[in-house]
Structure formats: structure tokens, C-alpha cells
Amino acid sequence: MSIYVFRAAKIRFTYKNLNGSLIEYIETFLCCIFKRKDACKRFYKTTSLTQTINSLVGKPLTIRQRNLIGGALSPKLLITKCSSNLHNLLILDANSIKTCWIELRPKGIIAHFVNLLNKYMFIAPYYNLDIKKQTAGEYTLALKHNYINVLVSGKSQDFMEKLIQQKLIQPTKKPEDF
Q1: pLDDT value for 33
Q2: Cα separation, 5 vs 9, whole angstroms
Q3: How far apart are CA 140 and CA 11, in angstroms?
Q4: CB-based burial of residue 7 (10 Å sphere; 0-12 exposed, 13-18 middle, 19+ buried)?
Q5: What is the secondary structure of the chain as a DSSP string?
Q6: pTM exceeding the 0.90 threshold for the entire prediction
Q7: Which residues 6+ apart lie within 8 Å of 136 measured at CB?
Q8: What is the spatial distance between Cα 76 and Cα 53, in angstroms, rounded to a whole number?
Q9: Rounded Cα–Cα distance for residues 14 and 22 (Å)
Q10: Quick check: 15 pLDDT over 80?
Q11: Mean pLDDT, the chain, as a whole number?
């Protein structure tokens, strides 16, 4: 599974200021290159990033589909434990509570979490996703060697049951295996 790393790129701009003189400046922006990493750092929406995510987990559900299943986003879930790679991203901000929310897609899930104003995504197709119930109200979402333990209660419990039902409907093999 391909996940993404971002690198900085520079673009040179020229424009006229109010008194008519040309000003040249270099703006640094972030562009996407594809590598194998554990979480995708998402700065802004790019077509290549969107296309790759859509190929892995499908396009976002339509409004009609979301209404039929009762919603595609979970409430905020408390992260109790995670793999070391994801933990290194989360410990950068020691003052914040570690939370995430999960988005259902037709072929997988995206777990979103924010740290120090950076947005990260944990992308997991259903055929690679393992869902385990650890204790009462605690679930593990595992993708090969990466995992997130989340604490659920109330409405989030209903969402986890919906997620398990969606996973049961989906095939367990990669699309290339058919």
C-alpha cells in the first residue's frame, strides 16, 4: 500500500507593487511524492493525492449513501495506544488530548488525526484492515504492523458496529486477486 511523504518545492513569482516596481519573491509550497510511509500528512488537496486515496479506499460516499447507512463520520475517538510510528507523530504536542475520527469509504476507512496544526490520515483498505475488540469499549484498528487503539462509548459504539458491518460486506482479498 502506498502512502505519501511531502517535500517542499519553490516557485518564483514576480508582481508589481503599488508604486509600479517589480518585486520578485520565492514562495515555498508543499507538493506530494509517493513513498511507503505510515501516515499521510495532508496539507492541502491535490489531484494526485485525491486520486490515489480514491483508488485505495474509494470516493467519498454520496449524501444518499450516507443517509442510508446513518452517517459516514464517527464522533471524536480517544486514542489510548498506537504503534510506535504513529506514536512519534502524536507525541510532538504533549499538551493535547490524542483524538481521531474515522471516515467510512466504499473500499476502506480513513482515520484522521490532528497534531500541532498538521492533519494526518491513516488510510486502510478493508482487505488489509483488522478490527479487534480489546476490552469493553476499546477497539484496535490494525493495518499490518501499524495499529490504533481507540476508546468508544455511546454514539461511537454504534459507529464501530456500523464499521464492522461494512467490513463484513466487503471482499477480503485484494482487487488484483480476483
Answers
A1: 31
A2: 13
A3: 43
A4: exposed
A5: --EEEEEEEEEEEEEE-TTS-EEEEEEEEEEEEEE--SSEEESS--HHHHHHHHHHH-SPPPHHHHHHHT-SBPPPEEEEEE-HHHHHHHTT-TTS--EEEEEEETTEEEEEEEETTEEEEEEEETTTEEEEEEETTEEEEEETTEEEEEE--THHHHHHHHHHHHHHHS-SS-GGG-
A6: no
A7: none
A8: 22
A9: 6
A10: no
A11: 76
Q: What is the pLDDT of residue 118?
A: 79
By the 10 Å C-beta count (0-12 exposed, 13-18 middle, 19+ buried), 93 is classed as middle
What does each C-alpha distance from 68 to 61, 62, 104, 162 come to in angstroms?
10, 10, 13, 12
Residue 96, pLDDT above cutoff 90:
no
Domains detected in the chain: 3-18+25-173 (2.30.29.30)
Query: Average pLDDT in the 54-76 region?
Result: 91
Q: Which residues contact 51 (CB under 8 A, 6 or more apart)?
A: none
Exposed, middle or buried: residue 80 (CB in 10 Å: 0-12, 13-18, 19+)? middle
Cα angle, residue 86 at apex, residues 82 and 89 outer, rounded to 5°: 130
Q: Which residues of 101-110 are buried (b: 16+ CB within 10 A; e: fewer)?
A: bbbbbbbbbb
Q: What percent of the chain has pLDDT over 70?
A: 71
